[in-house]
Design brief:
alpha+beta, 7-stranded antiparallel sheet
């Protein structure tokens, strides 16, 4: 049976075996992290103002490079069927302990709120959970 998330101005179902953790970064940003049983995560953060997308993407890419070395970054097509409500998405790829990790950064506006979503996992877990993330995005966009 799926669990229900109803915070941050959002309401959606998610797998009951995902562990939900709340976080508070500062007064302008609040969010949650869902830990996947396989070790990946899905995070949702609200932001007060529309971000400078290029700056956020560059900062995240630099953080990955600093932590993991060589990192590939490319814009991910925001197909309305798979990425409902997302107006910009980027995939970052890097290796950690000989495992290929994919981290997808998504910018979304729902209602009057801006969100930054991130889905990160080892490639096999990423691919096996990609449809779950698409289902969550459809719930958010409706």
């Amino acid at each position: 049976m799926p669990a229900t998330f109803s915070e941050l101005g959002l309401h959606f179902l998610y797998p009951e075996n995902w562990l939900l953790q709340s976080e508070e970064a500062d007064a302008a940003t609040t969010g949650v992290i869902f830990e996947l049983p396989s070790g990946g995560f899905f995070s949702v953060e609200t932001i007060e103002e529309e971000p400078d997308y290029d700056s956020v993407i560059q900062q995240i890419e630099q953080a990955f490079v600093d932590e993991y070395g060589e990192t590939e970054a490319e814009e991910f097509p925001t197909d309305p069927e798979q990425m409902a409500g997302v107006h910009l998405a980027f995939d970052f790829r890097f290796y950690y302990l000989d495992l290929l990790i994919i981290s997808r950064l998504m910018f979304l506006r729902a209602g009057n709120q801006n969100y930054i979503l991130q889905f990160q996992a080892e490639i096999r877990d990423f691919e096996s959970n990609e449809m779950v993330i698409a289902a969550i995005l459809k719930q958010i966009a409706s």
